[in-house]
Amino acid sequence: MRTNGSLLQSIGKSHDKIRYFFSKADEHKKHHGRKLVGFSMEQMFTVVSDVANYKSFVPFCKGSTIICESDENLKAVLHIGFPPIFESYVSDVTLSKPNMVRAVCKDGRLFDYLETYWKFSEGIESNPQSSIVDFSIDFRFKSTLHLKLANMFFDALVGQMETAFLTEAKRRYGAESIPIHELSYVKT
Asked: Is 124 exposed, middle or buried (0-12, 13-18, 19+ CB in 10 A)?
C-alpha cells in the first residue's frame, strides 16, 4: 500500500517525464564513430556507396531509388520508416572512391538537414583486408515531436545502422580478416 508521500512522489516523477517530453528539444543530433574493421577501404566504400540497395540491408529504409548518377555524384530518393515516422527525402551523395561517401538531405519534410559522412582509411599496414571507418551523422528534424522520439532512440538507431553496413560487407565478402575494434574519434 502506498503512503500519501510515495504517491505524491510517483505523480511528481510522471509529471517530470511529461514535462521533459514536451520541453524544447536539443537543436540537433550528432554522432561520430571510428572503427578498425576487417574489410578493405574498397570493400567498405562499395557497400556504403550502394545506395540503390539500401532498402535490402539498411534498417528502416523501405525504398531507395537512384534518380541520376555519375562517378562522383548521385541523387536518390530514400523512403524511411519506423513508427510513427514514415517519410521520403532526396539525398545528394558525393563519392570519392575509395575514400569517402557523403550524403546530404536537400529536400524533405522530415529534416531541416541531414548529413552522413563516411571516411575510409588504410587499416593495419600488414593486412590489406583492413581499414579504418569513420562515420558521422548530423541532423535536425523539423518537428519537435520527431526530435524527441529521436532523442529517446538515437543511440540504438545509429548502432543498428553502423552494424547493418558491416553485416552487409560480411555477407558480400565473407568473414572479416580481424575483429572490429572501436577506436577513439579525433575531430579533424
From this structure: middle
Tell me the C-alpha distance between 48 and 15, whole Å.
Answer: 43
Q: Is 70 helix (H, G, I), strand (E, B) or coil?
A: coil
Beta bridge partners of 143: none
Question: Which are the contacts of 87, defined by CB distance < 8 A and separation ≥ 6?
Answer: 79, 80, 81, 108, 109, 110
CB atoms within 10 A of CB 59: 14
Give the pLDDT mean for 92-103: 97
> Dmax over Cα atoms in the chain, in whole Å?
69
Counting DSSP H helices and E strands in the chain, the numbers are: 4, 8
Q: What is the mean pLDDT of the chain?
A: 82
Residue 17, pLDDT > 80, answer: no
Report the alpha-carbon distance of residue 62 to residue 134 in Å, rounded.
25
Place of cell 537512384: 66
Q: Is the pLDDT of residue 182 over 90?
A: yes
Tell me the per-residue pLDDT of 133-157, one tens digit each, with 9 for 90 and over: 999 988 776 666 656 665 556 666 7
Residue 82's contacts (CB-CB under 8 Å, 6 or more residues apart) are: 59, 60, 157
